[in-house]
Amino acid sequence: MKLKIAAVGRLRAGPEADLVRDYMARFDKTGRNLGLGPISLHEVEAKKGGMAAEAHLLEKAIGLSAPVCALDERGKVMSSPDFAKLLGTWRDQGAAEPVFMIGGADGIDPNLRARANISLSFGKMVWPHMLVRVMLAEQLYRAASILAGNPYHRS
To answer: pTM of this prediction?
Structure first.
């Protein structure tokens, strides 16, 4: 099962970009034997028109993919094992290419957010959208490790 991260803004060279690439590569390697991966990152430009303009670009990036998971402060807070179970369920149900959607500085347009099958939160705090990419990539790798029975995740 391929995965896609659709995100507003371009990740510039630096520690965040290095971490995202590292965790995505780890996910691809760990997930390969589990029917998970590869994972791709699709970046869209942050627009002066705000959330509505960005939503149009995100919709193009998402296409007809399903399921769609919005990363949103109002979303569901999940444990890492529960997140791994969600990925395993999507894989077992034959989801072609789940998309994880990350908005820009103002978040995700409410109409596009409503399209998501699930909203996921990394806690009640608001995180910089570039850091959310790192956190998501790490959690995807952790989920693959949990599904593979690797010792990376210790509960």
So the answer is: 0.92
